[in-house]
């Protein structure tokens, strides 16, 4: 018997399933995935003499307006340090620039000396942090762990040795991306750039990725080369200061108008990311919500027609802490999660899709979809296809039976609702293919090694069917027949690797049958695999 696995359905997989499998190309939405690459109309960063970094403008403005810590991550020579230096100078900030790979603690705080009262005080130097409005920590990923620990309270609390840095407003840092095994051959190797401690990385509210100039168009690459010899626009400081003020003025209005929607979006996005293996802390979720509002306020200060959905995508793209800590979150996966989260957050309460999309269990989602009034057949097809592709063996088969209308005369809500007739031809065929594993007698002719894993799995399969609770009825006999067919089909397809797989499939199938059909699955103990047409030849 050929190996048969769940058949994929082209073009019908929903974003719900795409999120976990990161197949973002099939997700449909009105969001512009390139929104973060569209230069803002005023192009403030170009006025600082830097080309190709305009996509960072709303992120940098959001950091300035909210005084949130900002981390720039990018390849060497991409303009990270130059951007922050010129920004501090343009705004007239009293700032300090530290190289984390070289800095000593005395450089930060000065030299400790006892005063006339015997209390310890720090003798300030031109490089010490006292009185600074802005601190820029360069090469933070090259700092020793003990130095990272000393930088932590400056970034997190604006304190040193428990003493508040009253003048400090802005905390900035820059780093090269830590190298990983899955980096491409053309990716720069930064042996000295180590992942940040996750707790430290999580303190940077905004973590913007600086683009590599190799990805620029030829004319922009030439502009980068020419800009190396050009001074910033003398009006840059005034324009940046005005933009920061405009962002701060708009921020309360954005929070009042969009606060609840943003909170719902972030909650859903965090859940979807967790399902995809990227877990956000509660602190990060709160930061992300604040970043969405701040980025939108920054974009509104330049364009009154800026869309909140695009602002949410820009904020999400520049708020993930994984790259700094040495992790990886593919943009395609993040985009799929963003689109699905925004779709759910934007769904109206009276929209039948609102409750359906909020349901995490695929089987329960199908039941809600069938019960919904006015749900288009295309949406139902998408939900059913997603459920069949994400449910594990056993549970997937029980769902297919229920949609098919039961097996051998069983009546189901799925069948009574005409679910199969509402599905696309390809989706209906997938349901039928799945039901065939349960409804059709399976024959296996196979030679296996005695006492090998395959043999032990087969013997355990026989044992489990023999242990089913006996009740002398035709319905119970058919129940065991179905389970025997299912296990035989999965065994032939190589999907039952060890004994535990047999137990798990039976448990899922029986639980799903009880949930969907409302009846326990049982059968006579006298019914054996041989009577189901399943045979095996064991090699001596």
Task: Describe what this molecule looks like in 3D.
It is built from 21 helices and 11 strands. The longest helix is centred in the middle third of the chain and has 40 residues, at 236-275. The chain is an alpha/beta fold. It has helices at 15-21, 57-66, 80-90, 105-109, 145-157, 198-201, 218-227, 236-275, 282-300, 308-317, 331-346, 352-358, 362-371, 377-390, 395-404, 413-416, 419-422, 425-439, 453-466, 474-492, 499-517, and strands spanning 70-73, 95-99, 111-114, 120-123, 134-138, 159-160, 163-164, 170-175, 206-209, 447-448, 537-538.
Question: Main attributes?
Answer:
five-stranded parallel sheet; 11 strands; 7% strand; alpha/beta; elongated; two-stranded antiparallel ribbon
């Amino acid at each position: 018997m050929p190996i048969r696995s769940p058949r994929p359905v082209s073009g019908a997989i929903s974003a719900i399933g795409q999120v976990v499998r990161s197949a973002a190309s099939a997700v449909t939405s009105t969001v512009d995935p390139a929104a973060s690459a569209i230069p803002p109309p005023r192009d403030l960063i170009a006025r600082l003499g830097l080309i190709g970094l305009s996509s960072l403008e709303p992120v940098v403005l959001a950091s300035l307006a909210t005084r949130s810590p900002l981390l720039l991550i990018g390849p060497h020579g991409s303009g990270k340090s130059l951007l922050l230096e010129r920004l501090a100078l343009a705004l007239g900030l009293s700032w300090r620039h530290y190289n984390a790979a070289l800095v000593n603690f005395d450089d930060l705080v000065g030299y400790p000396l006892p005063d006339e009262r015997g209390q310890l005080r720090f003798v300030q130097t031109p490089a010490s942090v006292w009185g600074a409005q802005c601190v820029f920590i360069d090469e933070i990923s090259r700092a020793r762990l003990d130095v990272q620990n000393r930088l932590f309270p400056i970034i997190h609390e604006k304190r040193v040795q428990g003493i508040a840095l009253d003048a400090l407003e802005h905390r900035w840092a820059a780093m090269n991306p830590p190298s990983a095994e899955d980096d491409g051959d053309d990716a720069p190797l930064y042996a000295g750039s180590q992942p940040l401690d996750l707790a430290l990385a999580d303190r940077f509210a905004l973590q913007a990725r600086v683009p590599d100039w190799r990805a620029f168009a030829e004319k922009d690459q030439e502009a980068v080369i020419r800009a190396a010899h050009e001074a910033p626009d003398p009006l840059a400081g005034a324009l940046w200061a005005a933009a920061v003020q405009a962002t701060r003025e708009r921020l309360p209005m954005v929070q009042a108008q969009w606060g609840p929607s943003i909170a719902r979006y972030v909650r859903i996005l965090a859940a979807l990311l967790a399902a995809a293996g990227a877990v956000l802390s509660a602190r990060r979720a709160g930061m992300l919500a604040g970043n969405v509002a701040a980025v939108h306020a920054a974009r509104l200060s330049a364009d009154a027609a800026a869309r909140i959905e695009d602002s949410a995508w820009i904020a999400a793209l520049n708020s993930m802490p994984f790259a700094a800590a040495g992790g990886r979150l593919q943009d395609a996966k993040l985009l799929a999660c963003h689109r699905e989260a925004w779709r759910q957050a934007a769904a109206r309460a009276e929209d039948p899709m609102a409750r359906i999309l909020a349901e995490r269990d695929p089987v329960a989602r199908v039941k809600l979809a069938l019960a919904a009034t006015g749900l288009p057949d295309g949406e139902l097809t998408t939900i059913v296809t997603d459920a069949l592709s994400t449910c594990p063996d056993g549970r997937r088969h029980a769902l297919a039976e229920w949609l098919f209308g039961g097996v051998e005369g069983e009546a189901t809500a799925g069948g009574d609702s005409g679910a199969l007739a509402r599905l696309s031809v390809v989706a209906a065929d997938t349901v039928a293919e799945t039901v065939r594993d349960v409804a059709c007698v399976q024959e296996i002719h196979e030679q296996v090694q005695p006492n090998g894993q395959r043999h032990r799995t087969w013997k355990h399969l026989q044992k489990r069917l023999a242990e089913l609770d006996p009740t002398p009825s035709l319905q119970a006999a058919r129940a065991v027949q179905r389970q025997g067919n299912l296990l035989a089909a999965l065994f032939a397809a190589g999907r039952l690797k060890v004994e535990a797989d047999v137990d798990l499939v039976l448990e899922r199938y029986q639980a799903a049958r009880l949930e969907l059909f409302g009846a326990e699955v049982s059968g006579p103990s006298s019914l054996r695999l041989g009577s189901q047409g399943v045979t095996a030849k064991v090699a001596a």
